[in-house]
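Progress note, sequence design subtask.
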């Protein structure tokens, strides 16, 4: 069973459109989505820690992306 807020017809059209794209077009979309998510996550971190420097925000962004636990101080 598929759980989605997209109707089967719209989903079919999306898949059809994606299949017609070149590899370069699909990669471009993937990079845009990745950049959007990274900016959104960084924005959330800045909101949660308004006193943090940009370096601290980037460090936390890497941590939440790849590590399950906080980094040790100075890492």
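Output:
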């Amino acid at each position: 069973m598929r759980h989605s807020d997209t109707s089967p017809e719209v989903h079919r059209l999306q898949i059809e459109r994606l299949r017609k794209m070149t590899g370069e077009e699909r990669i471009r979309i993937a990079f845009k989505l990745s950049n959007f998510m990274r900016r959104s996550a960084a924005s959330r971190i800045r909101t949660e820690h308004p006193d943090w420097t940009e370096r601290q925000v980037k460090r936390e962004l890497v941590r939440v992306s790849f590590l399950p636990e906080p980094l040790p101080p100075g890492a």
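The mean pLDDT is 89. Work on this subtask will continue into the next period as scheduled.
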